[in-house]
Design a protein that fits this description.
The chain has about 110 residues and is α+β, with helices and mostly antiparallel strands. Helix content is about 15%, strand content about 35%. It has one domain.
Amino acid sequence: MQLSHKDVVLDYFSCRNREIDMLMSGQELEIREAGCFWGEKRIIQFSAKFHAQMRELKAKNYFPAKAIVRKVVYWQGKERENEIKIILPDVEFSKINPMTQSSPPILY
């Protein structure tokens, strides 16, 4: 699933410039309930809209398996003077068969 501007909290990136500068397209991130992490630092916070989508997918036994940096782009909000870099990731989901596995993958 390719996430868009509506799937991430855009203002969250304003304090993550140093980390974003070290990332490149194609780089894998760890995905957790709170967002995507690079090491121990959360660098992407999911929006309420995307959390709702994940809940719908979980109800159908789909769980996030991995996240990859798809794009690093500049964004400028209406109330911002400067542009900031944001990450738009790809999130891959895997279907878990409830008959063969009773819990979600370890990453989640």
